[in-house]
Amino acid sequence: MVDPLRVFVTVAEQRNFSRAAELLHLSQPGVSLHIRKLEEEFGTVLMQRSPKRVKLTDAGELLYKRAKEMLMLHEAARQDILRLHDMVSGSLHIGASFTIGEYILPHTLARFAANYPQVDLELTIGNTERIVQLIRSKELDIGLVEGEVNDEQLRILPYMKDEMILVTAPDHPLAALGTVRVEELGNQVWSLREPGSGTRAFSDRFFADTGCMPLKTYIFNSSQGVKEAVIAGLGISILSRWVVRRELAYGELAEVVVQGVQQERSFSLILANDAIPMRVLDAFMDMLLARKIEK
């Protein structure tokens, strides 16, 4: 039986009845019926509907906040009971920035799923800024992000180090040099990630620290896009070695060493300060911290 409050929360977060119905595996009329019954129960309009989106009324905003609290307490009680039997089950909503979510985390998720087949896993991939927002709003249980995060609402734990490298197409003039000074990177075309991503933050800091000024930049909203652009000859870039190691091995990209420049960053685990303890989350964090992924 579907909890009407869970239906309400899903519609409120998706701002769309159709998407909420897909996530809940319900029909759209079924979702509408749950919302209508809640409005009848509380004697007020909770949502303003339009063809494109749903907007919460003041009463809807109040119910959304309370409903999230009730659902979290329900899950916490369920996890406490499972803990009595030393069982790990339930659902875990994980967020990851692109480099981690696309190139690192899938291997960990596969191991976790094999160890805990009763757990339903859901992975959301977005740039670091987006994952931080979703953790803050408690739409995700845990996040793994790249770059610096400073937020008093979050608990931030160091996870692992990541090596960033300068890459070019194999026939780019810099590739023939193998090692370059920062001065030789001036007036180059660069392919970069979008603002808000950890990779872009690293590139911006590289430019600020070295005084390197790109001649022209092309912006992509994924590391895959940047990588393919560089392979095609659209400038140079700094990317995680995780992202490009396969292309380096097959000779589709070339690594260029920049003399005297520290090219390392940190990955972090992030959780809301007031996140309710869950056995499934504890098990996932134990696996992450005990088996930090080897390159």
Describe this structure as you would to a colleague.
- This protein is of the alpha/beta class.
- Among the domains are: 1-87, Winged helix-like DNA-binding domain superfamily/Winged helix DNA-binding domain (Arc Repressor Mutant, subunit A); 162-264, 3-Layer(aba) Sandwich (D-Maltodextrin-Binding Protein, domain 2).
- The protein is 46% helix and 24% strand.
- It has twelve helices and twelve strands.
- It has helices at residues 4-14, 17-24, 28-42, 58-84, 98-103, 105-115, 128-136, 173-177, 198-210, 223-231, 241-249, 279-290, and strands at 47-49, 54-56, 90-96, 119-125, 142-146, 154-168, 179-180, 189-193, 216-220, 237-240, 254-258, 264-272.
- The strands form three sheets. Strands 3, 4, 5, 6, 7, 10, 11 and 12 form an eight-stranded mixed β-sheet that branches. Strands 1-2 form a two-stranded antiparallel ribbon. A two-stranded parallel sheet has the order 8-9.
- The mean pLDDT is 89.
- Keywords: DNA-binding, Transcription, Transcription regulation.
- This is DNA-binding transcriptional LysR family regulator.
